[in-house]
Design a protein that fits this description.
By secondary structure, the chain is an alpha/beta fold. Helices cover 36% and strands 15% of the residues. The chain starts with a helix and ends in a 17-residue tail after the last helix.
């Protein structure tokens, strides 16, 4: 104990020790572009786009709120998979990493819903929902980078197939928002096998005459960019998103040349023809509605028609898409 602890008045003690507990955590967010601190409530109002234009990562719940009419949707239950098929362990067991990732999401969900019950049960990096975008029935699948970097594993592959089959069953458009560092190494070849499986699921959607739209978010790379992220009828990207197979540092070390400014970013890929549209997140719903309006002009139906099929949990033994 020091002299200040012994001799300060009760009022001074309260002044020095009582205010810290009353200060909310995460009140400010640092913009990665400008470095300025932005008030979190202002970010929430702008869909987590900073004044400098940086598009911060957002949760599946916020994506659904962004896209669906009246912020109403039905969560699509996703099939379970084997938790640790290869008994993989590096510096910690694979199940421990899954548990830690779920705990991270649970903390985020608690902050977002302010103690209310969450309508989304997310066991891996994917979350899916069914609703309307400007009156058009749509299944939206969101890849969550906050869960182990959005890595593609068996659970993500099964979720993709389940969402695609739901789109076919309900004659709805299929939209995916990608954000991933690539395949999940803890699942080895089983992870890589999700690339052809998701490709076949996309073909089923297209065979049904339904649009498949990809929204490329930061980052989209590895096995995801080498499969379903680049097979859309239309590719829409958020500004400044990194879209690549391998990172620029790896490429520079391989070819021993300096890459162009903005290489592998949304705007660069649009100039080269790999991306169709680059649009601000705050205008994303209007852009998506316009695209779907062109691709599904006769698909706008009544609420009764849209909800005619129940959203049921797919079986754990979901058959692979037809080749």
């Amino acid at each position: 104990m020091n002299w200040l602890t012994n001799f300060r008045t009760p009022g001074l003690k309260g002044l020095l020790s009582g205010t810290k507990k009353d200060t909310p955590e995460n009140l400010w967010v640092k913009c990665p572009e400008s470095g300025e601190l932005v008030y979190r409530s202002d970010l929430e109002e702008s869909w987590y786009v900073t004044p400098a234009g940086a598009h911060l990562r957002i949760s599946p719940r916020r994506r659904f709120r962004l896209f669906f009419d009246d912020e109403r949707w039905e969560a699509i239950p996703l099939p379970p998979v084997s938790a640790d098929p290869l008994k993989f362990k590096d510096d910690k067991p694979y199940p421990a990493r899954i548990k830690a990732a779920k705990g991270k999401l649970a903390k985020r969900d608690k902050e977002e819903v302010a103690g209310e019950a969450s309508e989304i049960k997310q066991d891996d990096c994917m979350a899916a929902a069914f609703g309307r975008i400007d009156g058009i029935p749509t299944v939206v699948l969101v890849q969550d980078f906050a869960f182990m970097g959005g890595s593609l594993g068996m659970a993500a592959g099964e979720a993709f197939i389940a969402a695609a089959q739901m789109a076919v069953a309900r004659k709805a458009a299929f939209v995916i928002c990608t954000a991933s560092g690539g395949a999940r190494m803890q699942e080895g070849t089983l992870s890589l096998m999700q690339m052809p499986r998701t490709t076949l699921a996309i073909q089923e959607v297209k065979d049904a005459g339904l649009p498949y739209i990809v929204v490329l978010c930061d980052p989209t790379s590895g096995g995801v960019s080498a499969s379903y992220a680049m097979l859309g009828d239309v590719h829409i990207a958020e500004p400044g998103a990194m879209i690549a197979f391998s990172g620029p540092r790896v490429i520079e070390q391989t070819i021993r040349e300096k890459l162009p400014e903005g290489f592998q970013r949304s705007e660069f890929l649009r100039e080269k023809g790999a991306v169709d549209i680059v649009t601000d997140r705050r205008e994303m719903k209007e852009t998506m509605a316009r695209v779907l309006g062109h691709l599904m002009p006769k698909r706008i139906v009544s609420d009764k028609d849209v909800t005619g099929l129940p959203v049921e949990a797919p079986s754990a033994d979901v058959p692979a898409p037809k080749s």
